[in-house]
Amino acid sequence: MSLLQKFANIGKVIKQNNGIVGTYLKLFRIDAFKWGDLVGEDKYGNKYYQNNYYFYGRNRWVEFPLSVGHDYDASQIPAEWHRWLQYICDEPPSQLPLPKRKWMADHVENLSGTDRCYVPYSTTRPKIEAWVPPKRNS
């Protein structure tokens, strides 16, 4: 790769990430300088990119919306886009959507480990109860 082509690639990265400041913020957020073609966007705001200039296995990626900040994980990716990211299918859901069946549930992210996680209601009495100090008569 020539030196001129390397500078052209740096220019593509800066252009796609909205300037030098945007490129720095993207590097801070995802630890990579990447540019590519926008393949599609899901209803949660995730944007999916592809660039065959990169190695196989690194040429498809997702960029999460800024609304989630740094609290993003793989469970926020719907199943149809997961298929495309993991090379299970070649066509993205924006080109070849999955058929919608009546038994299919809508995608829900995994909330384990957050303050919004599911906690079941317990009907059994605890074995150890907290001590309550006696009240003083005033």
UniProtKB/TrEMBL annotation:
GO terms for cellular component: mitochondrial inner membrane; respiratory chain complex I. This is NADH dehydrogenase [ubiquinone] 1 alpha subcomplex subunit 12. Keywords: Electron transport, Membrane, Mitochondrion, Mitochondrion inner membrane, Respiratory chain, Transport. It is a peripheral membrane protein. InterPro entries: NDUFA12. The keyword Secreted does not apply. Complex I is composed of 45 different subunits.
